Amino acid sequence: MTPNTLRFPLQGAALPLAAVPSAPRFEHHEEPLGIGEDRPRLSWQVATGLPDWVQTAYELELGPDEASLTSYGRTETREQLLQPWPAPPLESRQRVAVRVRVWGNAGDVPSEWSPVAYVEAGLLTASDWQAAMIRPAWDEASDANEPAARLSRTFEVAGPVASARLYASAHGVYVAHINGRRVGRDILTPGWTSYHHRLRYQSYDVTEYLRPGTNVIGLEFADGWWRGNLGFQEKRNTYGNRTAVIAQLEMTDAGGAVSVIGSDASWLAGRGPVLSADLYDGETFDARLVNRGWAETGADTGAGTDTLQPAVVVDGFDPAVLAAPDGPPVRATEELPVKAVLGTPSGKTILDFGQNLVGRVRFTVIGAAGTEVVLRHAEVLEHGELGVRPLRVAKQTDCYILRGDSDGETWEPEFTIHGFRYVEVSGWPGELDPEAFTAVVIHSDLVRTGTFECSDPMLNQLHSNVVWGMRGNFVDVPTDCPQRNERLGWTGDFQIFAATASFLYRIPGFTTSWLKDLAAEQGTDGPPPLVVPEVVAEKPPFPDRPVMAAWGDAAVLVPWVLYQRTGDLEFLRRQLPGMVAWLEAAARAAGPEMQFEHGFQFGDWLDPAAPPDSPGDARTPWQLVAQAYLAYSAAVAGEAAGLLGQDTEAERLRGLSARSRAVFRKRYLHDDGRLLPSTQTAYAVALRFGLLEPAEHPAAGARLAETVETDGYRIATGFVGTPLVCDALSDEGYTTEAYRLLLQTECPSWLYPVTMGATTIWERWDSMLPDGSINAGEMTSFNHYALGAVADWMHRSVAGLAPAEPGYRKLSIRPKPGGGLSWAAARHETPYGEAAVRWELAGREFSLAVTVPAGCTAAVYLPDGGTTGVEVGSGSHSFSCTVPLDAVPSDAVPSDAVPADAVPSATADGAREPVFLP
Ligand code: RAM
């Protein structure tokens, strides 16, 4: 199990007075076994106690193993990230050892060699697949969940196996077993992609699973995303009405001879103990049938082969669709014990795990064969009972039928996951022991890279809620919610959360995969789908590919954020055609006048003023939102095209941006500098999206601050305005107002849910009403990461840690103390290594400690009312200053202790973070 704690691989207690490079990384892979790139780019971090260290050159050595490495010469560059593969392209299955050493600006002595890292290619061409996609021959119902099927065969192994790989995938979700042992720790493989474009396969090192003599290999598989319940339209069979698997086991003996066992019509099909399994509805498992359905090796299963039938080959399956993963698999990452056992008014028993999470429950039980234990999962209680209404039709119910083992039997479902904090248990034999239950937390096994803490426990809880919201919704694709019959890759949600996510976890591999699907689904004409992978089109109210600002803008802004945070231009290169296709579609929808008028868009979705049954009815019209986004996204895409050297395209896109900006100004900006409508979202987009001239900023900032005050320092923004409003305020010098908004506890606010005991971010500010009843809206999720995007402001502005150049090669350290905080701290493992900021405020004395990774520099801005930054190189630095009055906690300093002339002008320097603006 991967601890979900921050790992900063290079930071020891004392850093050496030499440069120590890390083992190279390959593309954005965490475990580079079975990768799909034949020339993976290489990156490394450098740990050093030498101050201001910058690389001046590197040397790579590659070879088949550590003993036979070849140098590829010295390359003079400061670049440590994503350097080109120096050797001939990898062939399928080829395994290569790589190490690096570096020279720095501290003298012309090379570093020690880094540790060796191994990379291994997967099956790079369709012709590498000898195996067939196979399925059981029996008839199946297409309108209900089917039992999970098993496909297996026995085979002989002549002697010791030197090395073995299993390559496998499925239509459905699968788990492979070899000789009774589950292969690997991955869950819900092959994961969810746009299956008709890209079906992932997994590669496993299974050398240790094999033995001389008779062996058995089998894959068990269930409906999953392929044909199970999927989406809010109550659809099934989205990708097909038959599940199937493909598996290719390649074994190499000591002499190098290779034998291959591939799935084909000789495999045997059987039904196992999983009577039904569905991502939304849950799993039913009959433990009395545990060994049923596998081919037998003779002694070890005892299930009888008489029920097995031959498999059939799936017609027309083209292995060209098979693709290696770009990001990490879904896995169990943490376990939580029961926190409390609750009795309900109606006499039920409920387990409270104390944390809203995504995963499932494992338990150990002793009882008579045939006893049925049923677990129902939900995120909240209502009137003391399980609150299942927000789940809509998703049942989230698991059922286990005991085999009657007197030593006890342990079970955890395999082919389902739930969003829950509470579990209602029925049918438990005997007295319920809370220690018999464990919640298993499941999501994409991303490396944690960011933390935030401060002196305010409520803000820390809010931040924890953001992290848990992300964990629950990063399950192979970024989903809106993890519990009801939805769980879809809504583009808008990820668009607004991508920067926050990039700080908290290492997401470039995960996002590469999702963006490939977005591009594949979008094609080169028209908008991307509303959800990726696409499963909602064609049915009202979602016509095929509508233009939907903020959602469609994911095609531009997600790759842009990833470029900003990683420095990887490939994000822009791969997505530029989709950016252009989206912007052209948006421009077409705006008509010849480039002005949005008719139709429907989500707009500032879920503005708290919108009625529960009409979430698009925001106080800011969608036309304003669409106009602003078109201007902004076209500017970003123009910047992207420029970075890629496509100057004509860049000019064209900038022209498009300018036209939309002009329409925005003409239509919404009035002579007195006021925007009409004068809403928080209108000012936030105008200020943050570069729609105003510099001279117009102070007035607009003042109006925004006024509006926020008039709105009682409560949230008056939806999906679009909420992630921007604190930045818009603090950019213009209204940091105090931004803190008042952030620290508000009355509904609607970020902290109201915290006062209600929330442990994740909610979809609606009042998903739970103050009286403990659940909001009546159709969409009332208790785990929706989108509105947690404010954490990005907490990282960049409260703590003060932001990228100033792509990949954090230059950091912007600009803490904005306020809100009564006496300290705040953030850490982030940038692509170069750990960056850290911690500040303290005692009275008016502000002190700041900063860590800058090797290879990077930082511009440090102190909250002293000044406007110029101090440039520093890598290493640890301390600063201090006296802060002006308005940043001091009101209870810390008597107001007459500060001379009036210490109060700064409202705006520091109007400078904006590079994260949002091109
Ligand atoms: C809801 C989703 C999502 C949002 C869309 C428009 O169904 O939960 O958060 O993007 O609506």
From TrEMBL:
Region of interest (Disordered), residue spans: 892-918
GO biological process, one term: carbohydrate metabolic process
Alpha-L-rhamnosidase concanavalin-like domain: residues covered: 344-443
Every Bacterial alpha-L-rhamnosidase N-terminal domain range: 161-334
Catalytic activity, as annotated: Hydrolysis of terminal non-reducing alpha-L-rhamnose residues in alpha-L-rhamnosides
Molecular-function GO terms, alphabetical: alpha-L-rhamnosidase activity
InterPro entries: 6-hairpin_glycosidase_sf (IPR008928), 6hp_glycosidase-like_sf (IPR012341), Alpha_rhamnosid (IPR016007), Bac_rhamnosid6H (IPR035396), Bac_rhamnosid_C (IPR035398), Bac_rhamnosid_N (IPR013737), Ig-like_fold (IPR013783), Rhamnosid_concanavalin (IPR008902)
Alpha-L-rhamnosidase six-hairpin glycosidase domain span: 448-798
Residue ranges of every copy of the Alpha-L-rhamnosidase C-terminal domain listed in the record: 800-872
Matching SUPFAM superfamilies: Six-hairpin glycosidases
Lineage: superkingdom: Bacteria
Keywords associated with the record: Hydrolase
Gene3D superfamilies from the UniProt entry: 1.50.10.10, Galactose-binding domain-like, Immunoglobulins, Maltose phosphorylase, domain 3
Comp. bias (Low complexity): 892-906
EC numbers, comma separated: 3.2.1.40
Protein name per the record: alpha-L-rhamnosidase
Taxonomic source organism: Arthrobacter oryzae
